[in-house]
Amino acid sequence: MPPHCDTLDGPVVVAARQALESGDLTRVLPFVPEAAEEEVRDTFLATLRVRPMGVDARDLADRLFFETVVRLHRLGEGEPYTGVKPAGQPEGPVIPLAEEAVESGSAQQVAAFLTRVLETELDTRLEQVRELRERRGRSVPDDRRYVEAMLGFEVYTHHVLEAMHGSAHG
User: Fold this and answer.
1) Quick one: pLDDT at residue 4?
2) How far apart are the first and last CA of the chain?
3) pTM of the complete model
4) What is the DSSP letter of 136?
5) Distance CA 131, CA 88 (A)
């Protein structure tokens, strides 16, 4: 998934902004591991002290707070921190559908989309296996291409199933 948790308009920074504007740190704490709360709290309090010192100080302090929260969030996911990205990054087609499902309580649209994508992907991969099967027995390189495609198809299905039953986040 394209990460959107590390963008200026993603849910982590949105929660961080809300925390700063309201003075309520609990708005952002759910986005970071419990072990990171002290660092987030320290940065939050320092940010609140600096913000009244002017627009430049406020912007710089806010940026530090956003970067701290996003870095610790990504750490909690087991993912590398690569900086806070600008707003408006492409999320791909499934994230908006997933967000809509969370709001509506219905997974129907996201399930239909994923089903279509999976069927297309399986058909494409299986067609390659079928085409290569017709060349089997002509040469060892042809047989290798078939075996690679056949095993690739089977392993792909296994990985899809594992992903379906895997951890939901991070």
Assistant:
1) 79
2) 11
3) 0.77
4) T
5) 42
